[in-house]
Amino acid sequence: MRVEHFLEASARRHPDKTAIVAGGERVSFSALDARASRLAAWLQGRGVARGDRVVIFADNAIEAVVSLFATLKAGGVFSLVNPSTKADKLAFILGNCRPAALITQGRIAAVAADAAEQAGFSGARLVAGDPGGLPGATSYEDALAGPGGPVGFAGIAPDLAMLVYTSGSTGFPKGVMMTHANVVAASTSITTYLESAPDDIVLCALPISFDYGLYQVLMSMQVGATVVLEKSFAFPQAILNRVAEERVTGLPLVPTMAALLLRMRDLDPGACPTLRYISNTAAALPPAHICRLGELFPTARLFSMYGLTECKRCTWLPPTELARRPGSVGIPIPGTEGWIVDEDGRRLGPGETGELVIRGPHVMAGYWENPEATAKALRPGPYPWERVLHTGDLFTADEEGFLYFVARKDDIIKTRGEKVSPKEVENVLYALPGIREAAVIGVPDEVLGQALKAIVALDPGSTLNALDIRAHCSRHLEDFMVPRFVAFVDALPKTDTGKISRREAAELDLSADSGRAA
What we know:
alpha/beta, five-stranded parallel β-sheet, five-stranded mixed β-sheet, 15 helices, 30% helix, globular
């Protein structure tokens, strides 16, 4: 099976059922499938062939969903990019994966145009909305008005389905390669333990450029459920209103969202009686939050999970275990295996801390054109024919095999459900005249999970302040990558080899020097 078969099969089974709700628009499975087929024909007519990449630079819109399924129907590989991505990073992605087509939206077409020029991109261009901001682009409406027609043989399950760009320790994004077989395995496993069904209505306020958000769409298409797309969780009351209006049964959250919900003073217990489940990933919820969510949403089972882009989902905690093990992220998802190893690869027993290793059909094919990073993450497994995923995260397990997250082995920071490379933020800081040294660390935050803190040493005579630094970062980074805190020091601690030590920087007493920009 291939991923586009999710939509095609649901369109046959439930042609008139609502597949997507976004804003004021509702689209049935048959209409969504027809749009995707017509756009696939347009892509093929512009030279997109089997294995070609298509970058989709868009927010949570129906056009983005149509575009990803159109890419798959045309035999291509889609890469969804967060709409807040700046031109420099988008240019890197375009240069790295060399797409045959770029699809975007009118409001961010100018960013896409800047990135395309930087990358020397010469492929097909399509814009949902006014195409004027992206030279040479066709409008989404004109593309769908074309002749359409059969798109032919798209490929088989081992083909690549998508590239998901995630922050890397070098400061440059890495393209996680996921095959159709990977995606189908992950989606099937998750929908099994969630007990997903056609009568589910899932509200997704997570960016679909984030794989947790993307899978809400893919899993809904697989089982014939309806997905309600929202562009933000900034106004929790508006989201809860949508839950009531659409009779939502499934609500995926990250800890940031849960914290915002729990800060609402007027939320009455049982206010969302249609909710069947709430899911959480990105970081474990504090036990107090788990308890409070249970009180506020008594009809909903809470699924606590842990995952990586490199395999989508690693573990899940059965809701019946929440009371006994509130700090656990559970057991390996159905159809997969996981265990903990030491630095030499030896399996560890209960209570011992080591790196989590994941084995299963959902493990990525590797990082796009990055054999060094691939070899570090995918290593020989128990059998000679396979490679297994070394997650880079430290865990411990109890006597019954339930897993507990301890810490990350590398420096990647998780904030607002997104992964941030300190190096990438530091590169931007160093581009600001007046900054001599910089280190970016994560600090605990009740709402964000971790907040970014920039620790900087200025050149003599520099008058930069926290507001200046955050404004500079806002111009060059996605919003979730902008440091929330800025601290000033005379010099940053160094290792014996002269490198700045983030670990020692995080241990500095900065109470007198710290500044927070509003």
